[in-house]
Amino acid sequence: xxxxxxxxxxxxxxxxxxxxxxxxxxxxxxxxxxxDFKAVAEATRLKMQRHSGKGQTLALGRRTTASKTxxxxxSAASLxxxxx
Length: 84
Description:
Largest sheet: none
Mean pLDDT: 74
Number of helices: 4
Oligomer: single chain
Strand content: under 5%
Radius of gyration: 25 Å
Distance between the termini: 68 Å
């Protein structure tokens, strides 16, 4: 039988701690070295990739049977012409 384990108490963050964690994203803060621009750019790139894939998946689900067949025929035709 599993026994519940004690969960250690974590002290609460001081008031205003959330504000101290990340300075506002401005050119001045980036130039001052308060913000890691490469990390922010990477996070933005990943976010955009996630949203792009999500949109494409939704769009594929909305296609009708006729457009799916036509799209497959067009893909086959372009593949065939590329192989020639």
